[in-house]
Amino acid sequence: DASDIEKGTYPHYMLKEIDEQPFVMRRIIQKYQDENGQLTIDPQIIQEVLNADRLYIIACGTSYHAGLVGKQLIEKWAKIPVEVHVASEFSYNMPLLSEKPLFIYISQSGETADSRAVLVQTNKLGYKAITITNVPGSTLSREADYTLLLHAGPEIAVASTKAYTAQIAVLAILAVTTAKAKGIELDFDLVKELAITANVMEMLCDAKEEMEKIAREYLAATRNCFFIGRAVDYYVCLEGALKLKEISYIQAEGFAGGELKHGTIALIEDGTPVIALATQEHVNLNIRGNVKEVVARGANPCIISMRGLETDEDRFVIPAVHPMLTPLVSVVPLQLIAYYAALHRGCDVDKPRNLAKSVTVE
Ligand code: G6P
Q1: 233: which residues sit within 8 A by CB, 6+ positions away?
Q2: Where does the chain cross the membrane (predicted)?
Q3: Of the residues 141, 349, 359, which should be mutated to test ligand 1's pocket, given the most ligand atoms within 8 Å of the CB?
Q4: pLDDT digits (tens, 9 = 90+) for 149-201
Q5: pTM for the complete prediction?
Q6: Which of 60, 71, 176, 315 is most exposed, with minimal Cβ within 10 Å?
Q7: Residue 80 above 50 pLDDT?
Q8: Active-site residue, selected from the candidate residues 182, 261, 351, 357
């Protein structure tokens, strides 16, 4: 049928969409460049961001995880405070808002009812809203004041992959263009750094055999799996765990490396897989300490680190990218590991049980 043709030679949409990520990165760079090759965003949007004293990112699922990374980028580069909220909580338990809030809705589909419920409320309150979405003309795009498009192409697999990395890239562009508008000097060129991440993504997409091996070794028979990381790696761990849960049905949790010992370490048994991300220099020793803690309780560790921070015990080393952009690359091995774990366990990768691509009920 038609969907088979679109899949081309790929066995699943998810694998095709994982592989499309370097291409999507390059397309985003192009789409957001002006005629001089400078990254640019609608000046009206930048003005709204400058007018705000705080940004509120509202999203669900994978888009929420992209929002967490976005907060880091906007706060570090553009120096504007950002809160990130799960839409279904925000709508019934709205926090005390700042004086001049600006809302950013992140939604691949632009149709998620939980996010729309919040948008309806903030519109009523008279607050301005930007939607970051993959679907032009979607409900959230139409009902917000402004739209930033992901340009990722249709995402068919229920488990979101290329939309996540596209959302982070667009948030990075928003952060950098806002910083420039504020006169903040940044010591890197985002066009160049994103181009490097695209190349590294491509190398990681070529590491499928290795990821398949890791999935087979660690996840073929396990009941559960933990992902640990610190700083921005923690946010990627949340997404890695979500991917694994969604398609392989392995009970997985992403944890802040330092928090596991405050309770959840009780679940570590002989052989429990613990996937640790180590891409952040300032917490590299800390996360390695956390790995030792779980290994002492019998865990089977799989450390994925970044070039320059690696040690002999690491299972896989990602080529180096800008330290703030590591989520764009560190998520790729986790996506592939989830994919192969699901395959090994005989799961329906593209259509996991109980899940819908877009949830249009609250
Ligand atoms: C559903 C999908 C998730 C997705 C979430 C938010 O639950 O299964 O993959 O992350 O909705 O979707 P959105 O389209 O708003 O990004």
Answers
A1: 257, 277, 278, 279, 280, 283, 287, 326, 330
A2: none
A3: 359
A4: 999 999 999 999 999 999 999 999 999 999 999 999 999 999 999 999 999 99
A5: 0.97
A6: 315
A7: yes
A8: 357
Q: Which atom of ligand 1 is nearest to the CA of 355?
A: 8
Tens digits of per-residue pLDDT, 199-234?
999 999 999 999 999 999 999 999 999 999 999 999
Helix residue ranges per DSSP H, the chain: 2-7, 13-19, 21-31, 43-51, 61-73, 87-90, 113-124, 139-143, 162-181, 190-205, 208-219, 232-248, 284-295, 326-344
By C-alpha distance, which of 253, 254, 218, 220 is closest to 234?
Answer: 254
Cα–ligand 1 centroid distance for 64 (angstroms): 9
357 is catalytic: yes
**Lowest-confidence region among 3-7, 42-46, 90-94, 190-194:** 3-7
Please compute, for residue 197, the number of CA atoms within 13 A of its CA located in the half-sphere on the CB side. Answer: 29
Pocket mutation for ligand 1, best pick of 63, 105, 115, 147 (most atoms within 8 Å of C-beta): 63
Tell me what ipTM this predicted complex has: 0.98
